Amino acid sequence: MKLNRNIKIFINYFLGPVLFLWLSWFIYREIKNQPDLEKAWLRIRSSFRSPLIWNLAAVILLMIVNWSIEAIKWKISVKQIQQVSFIKAFKAVLSGVSFSVSTPNRVGEYLGRVLYMNEGNRLKTISITIVGSMSQLIITLLMGCIGFIILLRKIETGQIVSSIWLEVILYAVMATLLILTLIYFHLSWLTKWVDRLPGSSRYTYLVKALDHFNITLLLQLLLLSAARFIVFIIQYYLLFRLFDVQVLWWQAFWTVSVSFLILAVIPTFAIAELGLRGEIGLRLVGLFSANGLGIWMTTVTIWFVNLIIPAVAGSLLILSIKKIFTNKNENT
């Protein structure tokens, strides 16, 4: 326990800030070296006084749409365990976001969501929530893989990664996607494997909830995950337009898709994530646009709207929960 706490302190108070500072320096250097930086600042300032400012309002609205889709995903996933309303599911999702900002790759979202389940159902819900996240990861890997293939030559020309490493990354992603998809559509394999483990009888109920995931439900989750992905892309494109990042829709679509792929496979923490997002955006979108400042502004705005605002709302919702894990020994 002490070791785990020390590791957490090291990550939160040393490693995270160091990564953030290093990535921030990289972004500052890239923006400073941008041609006509003063003109770029003037374009950014003028964008807030142009009719395109409505793009920002649309991005905020799409944030609500995005988390609403995620709430629907969670609602239909847990319905065999416990019926929850859309409003309750939406609150659970936002509460999960508030927990996730302080954990690697936002794994803490599971804790926030289970707070809204009845006693006896909370631990069962974790495996169900993981399936929902798995569906989103499959879409992210699939679209990112296609984006890699489409942008392969451009990435090579831009000397972001050597051709050898590009092939290694591409094949690794394809292999991971294949394995993950097989597991996703054969969740019964997981429950059978747990059953065979020595002394697993007391933990079997944690994964038995996966038995109700039929092909129809799994496909529904994938379609909803794809819808969320499209919402993200639209948000980026609207902000690219607002901040005068001159890219075509297909360039925005595939560069952002590859960005999501990279963010999905690299462990990140909230304090360093903004810097990492900025660096990836500058590298990939910068293949098609020299407006590094506009790319960085888009990244910051997306991060703030999609993560920070929901996290603050979720933290306020958590304060209103009266019953939190009163039963220490949950079982079936």
What does this structure look like?
This protein is mainly alpha-helical and 332 residues long. The protein is 74% helix and 0% strand. The protein has a domain at 2-30 and 140-312. The longest helix is centred in the middle third of the chain and has 36 residues, at 122-157. Helix 11 (249-265) packs antiparallel against helix 12. It has helices at 2-32, 37-47, 54-78, 86-100, 109-114, 122-157, 163-184, 187-196, 205-208, 215-242, 249-265, 270-284, 292-318.
Specify the helix fraction band.
over 70%
Give the radius of gyration. 21 Å
Structural class: mainly alpha
- Distance between the amino and carboxyl termini: 27 Å
Overall mean pLDDT: 79
- SSE topology string: HHHHHHHHHHHHH
User: What is the approximate shape?
Assistant: globular
Number of alpha- plus pi-helical segments:
13
Strand element count: 0
Low-confidence stretches: 322-332
Strand content: under 5%
Largest sheet: none
